[in-house]
């Protein structure tokens, strides 16, 4: 089991241009890539906190660069039978959905469509290279966990029951009983399903007077390779987590408190699992939340990548700091005196008009 924790700082949005930028990437040595995120201590702004990651991506990083660096290298392992799990973690508005789903334009496509595109391409090549002796099937499940209940996103919201789908243990694995699975032949198939499912997610949230940023959305891509009697199965999971902000600060209605408790607990357990895996612990507390239990986090032989999304501006200060605290592997590595000085060397790139987050049908690249 291997785990990588990386941070991605998004560019300033149009409405943020000219705002105070307080989050900056740094390197441990001149010439090395970024591995550190720096942020002022809110209690004493002459001090700066540093958090270490496996890698840090700044505001100039494109979707393609992120995918090529962090996800593409693992597609081979997926086809060798290892499971791949990719999380986007962070405060609402920091770029989780942009990172995972992305925008309409080809260049703006996020991790998920790129992952699928790569899986289809590799699967087709494998079938061709083996003259059809090996067949590759790709099947999709997509569900959300809201208030610790599991709902199928491939089914219309009318079919939901208040209790959600039950979990059951089978062969030491946790399965979601009744979760649907759809076979997908190509990227077009996938995109059709994905758009429909994301619409289901929004509709369901609207009915509950909630917001989709308060649920975890989990896309599971099952890859089955069959050669004669030999069947090899592995899964890639891509998770757009609920916003890590403390909802109690902004809205203390009863509903929100219930949501906050469920979100905080599962995100806390997730971070505990990531810590335990990266330390190489035997005991991973994955059973303590539904999300980590369904993903059997740390139980599979696989690769886990956690992407911490960060907004660079001051209005997110406290929430950013707490998300850094939760996700950074080395925690706070140093506190040193600095002068308050300019941050990004390059001027921030204005946000391109990305529009809605849904992906429209696009031809294979
Ligand atoms: P979250 O899912 O974490 O709530 P979003 O993905 O919806 O955040 O991002 C918030 C806003 O920032 C959106 O308008 C999105 O298009 C924009 N954004 C996020 N990351 C980037 C990026 N790397 N480049 C350009 N725009 C981005
Ligand atoms: Mg989002």
UniProtKB/TrEMBL annotation:
Keywords: ATP-binding, Coiled coil, Cytoplasm, Motor protein, Nucleotide-binding. Its main location: cytoplasm. ATP binds at residues 90-97. GO terms for molecular function: ATP binding; microtubule binding; microtubule motor activity. GO terms for biological process: microtubule-based movement; mitotic spindle organization; spindle elongation. Residues 2-333 form the Kinesin motor domain. It is found in: Cytoplasm. GO terms for cellular component: cytoplasm; microtubule associated complex. Belongs to the TRAFAC class myosin-kinesin ATPase superfamily. Kinesin family. This is Kinesin motor domain-containing protein. The chain holds residues 1 to 365 of 757 of the full protein.
């Amino acid at each position: 089991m291997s785990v990588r924790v990386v941070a991605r700082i998004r560019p300033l949005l149009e409405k943020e241009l000219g705002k105070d930028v307080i989050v900056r990437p740094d390197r441990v040595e001149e010439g090395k890539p970024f591995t550190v995120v720096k942020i002022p201590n809110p209690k004493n702004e002459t001090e700066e906190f540093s958090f270490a990651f496996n890698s840090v991506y700044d505001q100039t990083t494109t979707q393609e660069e992120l995918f090529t660096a962090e996800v593409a290298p693992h597609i081979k392992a997926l086809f060798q039978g290892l499971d791949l799990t990719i999380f986007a973690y962070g405060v609402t508005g920091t770029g989780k959905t942009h990172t995972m789903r992305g925008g309409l334009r080809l260049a703006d496509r996020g991790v998920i469509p790129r992952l699928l595109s790569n899986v289809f391409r590799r699967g087709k090549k494998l079938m061709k290279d083996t003259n059809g002796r090996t067949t590759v099937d790709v099947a999709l499940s997509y569900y959300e966990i809201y208030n610790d209940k599991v709902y199928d996103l491939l089914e219309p919201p009318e079919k939901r029951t208040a209790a959600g789908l039950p979990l059951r243990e089978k062969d030491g694995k946790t399965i979601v009983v009744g979760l649907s699975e759809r076979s997908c032949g190509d990227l077009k198939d996938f995109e059709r399903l994905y758009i429909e499912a994301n619409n289901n997610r929004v509709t369901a949230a609207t009915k509950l007077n909630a917001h989709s940023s308060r649920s975890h959305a989990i896309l599971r891509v099952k890859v089955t390779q069959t050669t004669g009697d030999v069947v090899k199965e592995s899964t890639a999971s891509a998770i757009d987590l609920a916003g890590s902000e403390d909802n109690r600060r902004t809205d203390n209605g009863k509903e929100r408190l219930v949501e906050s408790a469920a979100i905080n607990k599962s995100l806390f357990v997730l971070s505990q699992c990531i810590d335990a895996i990266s330390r190489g612990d035997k005991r991973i507390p994955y059973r303590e939340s539904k999300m980590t239990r369904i993903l059997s986090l740390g139980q599979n032989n696989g690769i886990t990548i956690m992407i911490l999304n960060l907004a660079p501006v001051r209005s997110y200060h406290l929430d950013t700091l707490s998300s850094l605290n939760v996700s950074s592997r080395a925690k706070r590595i140093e506190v040193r005196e600095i002068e308050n000085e300019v941050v990004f060397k390059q001027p921030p790139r204005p946000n391109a008009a990305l529009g809605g987050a849904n992906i429209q049908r696009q031809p294979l690249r």
